[in-house]
Amino acid sequence: MTEEQKLKERKEELISHYKKYGYLKSEEIISAFRKVPREHFIGSNPKQLAYLDRPLPIYSNQTISAPHMVAMMVSKEILDLKVGDICLEVGAGSGYHAAVIAEIVAPTGTDKSKWGHVYTIERIEKLVNFAKDNLKNTGYDDRVTVIYGDGSLGLPDKAPYDKITVAAAAPEIPPPLLEQLKPGGKLVIPVGGKGYYQELKVIAKNKDGSINSATKCGVAFVPLIGKFGY
Ligand code: SAM
After folding, report:
1. How many CA atoms lie within 13 A of 155 on its CB side?
2. CB of 121 closer than 6 A to ligand 1?
3. Structural domain contains residue 23
4. pTM of the complete model
5. What percent of the chain has pLDDT over 90?
């Protein structure tokens, strides 16, 4: 069996496991998981680790999140992503999570005029370049824009957003992110201490601008560093 076939087999095993345990439910999200090659976002880690259910180190002491966390954060119950959504991700890291979102809001092989877009912001310059290269090599640079900056301030230039996802833990929900969310939009963010235990909060902004907040589960993310972070 070639390395490529082995990776494909491992990916299918992971997808079956996630379907069984409820992490992957909808066909659009399963298809996005199938299409985005995680092995091209893990840097110098051995490729055979790509479909283990665990975070992996990238650069500058940061990690690419475990695939089940990405599956959960893009789920219908949490973000309810739709084709055409304009999204912001805070914490680009490797660019993998942004590519999975892009494959849902702008699916490969569909009418480009209906595509949404993902803006992903990263505070570590080396990771900005890493994410850009990975997204270019896998063909997602037409649907994902990587920006260098402090994502705790959001990205006002491209606001408002249908969906915002934060891949680092904040002490509280950064006010700029709430401001930059469209009425009817959703935000998912880990909130809590720096010590690797936080709550995953799902925020819905109602049409009248009021906010509903729910706690989904306990999570362990690296800290959000910045004006409205640590
Ligand atoms: N989504 C990433 C992926 O798919 O590889 C993984 C994200 S990693 C768990 C968290 C990232 O958030 C790190 O790359 C870190 O540098 C970044 N980060 C932390 N604080 C930030 C901030 N204020 N603005 C932008 N990025 C930030």
Report:
1. 24
2. yes
3. yes
4. 0.97
5. 96
Q: Which residues are catalytic?
A: 65
CA of 137 to the centre of ligand 1 (A): 20
Q: Where are the beta strands (DSSP E) in 161-219?
A: 161-166, 181-192, 198-205, 211-219
Question: Taking a C-beta distance cutoff of 8 angstroms, is the pair 173, 194 a contact?
Answer: no
Q: Count Cα atoms within 13 angstroms, Cβ side, for 161.
A: 29
Round to whole Å and give the CA distance between 147 and 12: 32
**Residue 194: which domain range?**
3-219
- The number of folded domains in the chain is 1
CATH number, domain with residue 168 = 3.40.50.150
Cα–Cα distance between 193 and 196 in angstroms, integer?
7
Does residue 64 lie within any of the structural domains?
Answer: yes
pLDDT (tens digit per residue) in 104-125:
999 999 999 999 999 999 999 9
CA of 65 to the centre of ligand 1 (A): 10
Residue 228 lies in a domain: no
Task: Choose one of 152, 224, 227 to mutate for the ligand 1 pocket test, by most ligand atoms within 8 angstroms of C-beta.
Answer: 224
Does residue 229 sit within a domain?
A: no
Going from the Cα of 165 to the center of ligand 1, the distance in angstroms, rounded, reads 11
The residue whose two tokens read 């069996």 is 1
pLDDT at 195: 78
Across 171-187, average pLDDT: 97
Phi, psi (rounded to 5 degrees) for 225: -105, 125
